[in-house]
Amino acid sequence: MLKKISVLIPVYNECQTIERCLERVLKADVGNLEMEVIISDNNSNDGTKEILHKINDQRVKILYRKENSGKGANIKNALKEATGDLILFQDGDLEYSPNDYLDMLEPFFLFDADVVYGSRLTRAKATAMIGFPNYIGNILFTFVANFLFNKIFTDIATGSKVFKKDIIKNLEITSDGFEIEPEITAKISKNKKIKIFEVPITINSR
User: Fold this and answer.
1) Rounded to whole angstroms, how far apart are CA atoms 85 and 177?
2) How far apart are CA 174 and CA 184, in angstroms?
3) Residue 180 phi, psi dihedral angles, 5° rounding
4) CB 118 within 8 A of CB 127
5) pTM of the prediction?
6) Beta bridge mates, 63
7) Can you say whether residue 164 is alpha, beta or left, with left for phi > 0 and alpha for psi between -120 and 50 degrees?
8) pLDDT value at residue 115
9) Cα 5 to the chain's mean position, in Å?
10) Is residue 26 packed enough to be buried (19+ CB in 10 Å), middle (13-18) or exposed (0-12)?
11) Pair type for strands 196-200 and 115-119
12) What percent of the chain is modeled with pLDDT above 90?
C-alpha cells in the first residue's frame, strides 16, 4: 500500500527559484498520498541558504551540506532522510513542473511500476526548445543505453524520476556528480525484475 511520497529537491544557488519551486511542489496533486519534502542545499553562496532558513513548514525538512561535492552527493544526502513509499526527484530551478506529478504516479497504481521516468523528448507535452548539440548528445546517450541494456528509453538523462523506496535505497549509488543519472539507469536496467515506465512531461529548459 503506497501512502506517502518523498519529494527530494537538491539545490545549489537557486535563490531566484527555490521559493516558487517549493510553493508549487507543496500544492502539487499527488492523489491521496501524504507528502514530505526534503531539500538538500549543496553549500550555496548566493543567498539560497538564507531563504531556506526562513522556511517553517512541518512537511519540509532542510539539510545543509558543508561542501559542494556535486548533484549526486546532494541527492544521496536527501535520500538518506526520505521516509516515503515513493521517492521523487525534483530540481529546484523549476525546469520540471510539479504539475506532472500525478501523471508520473499513475503507473504505480495502474501497473504496479517500480520506477517511472519523466521524458522531456516525446513532445507530447509543452517543450521549451533546447540547443541542437544538447539534443543530439542526449539522443546518442540514450541510444547507447538502450543498446547496452535492451531498453526503449527516450530520455535517460532526465532529472525527473520516481522510485519505490526499496528500489532506490538499495541501489548503492556511488556517483557524486551528474553521472548519477546514467549510474541509476544502468543499475535498474540490469535488474530484469524492476518494472520501468516512462511518461511525457513538460520541460521549461533554462
Assistant:
1) 25
2) 10
3) -60, -30
4) no
5) 0.91
6) 40
7) beta
8) 98
9) 12
10) middle
11) parallel
12) 74
Q: Tell me how far apart the alpha carbons of residues 88 and 104 are, in angstroms, rounded to a whole number.
A: 9
Give every CB contact of residue 188 below 8 A, 6+ residues apart in sequence: 114, 115, 167, 171, 194, 196
Instruction: Tell which residue, 97, 95, 96, 113, has the closest CA to residue 105.
Output: 113
Find the distance separating the first CA and the last CA of the chain, reported in whole Å.
37
pLDDT tens digits, 126-163: 676 567 777 777 788 788 877 888 888 888 888 899 99
- The CA–CA distances, whole Å, from 116 to 53, 62, 134, 156 equal 32, 25, 23, 11
CA distances for 126 relative to 71, 122, 159, 198, angstroms: 26, 10, 17, 16
Cell numbers for 53? 532558513
Checking phi first, is residue 190 left (phi over 0); if not, alpha (psi -120 to 50) or beta?
Answer: alpha
User: What are 116's strand-pairing partners?
Assistant: 162, 197
Residue 176 identity: D
Residue entry with cell 522510485:
163
Q: Are the beta carbons of 190 and 150 closer than 8 angstroms?
A: no
| Separation of alpha carbons 9 and 17, rounded Å | 12
Q: Please give the grid coordinates belonging to residue 195.
A: 518494472
For 192, counting Cβ atoms within 10 Å of its Cβ (0-12 exposed, 13-18 middle, 19+ buried), the class is exposed
Q: Is 143 helix (H, G, I), strand (E, B) or coil?
A: helix
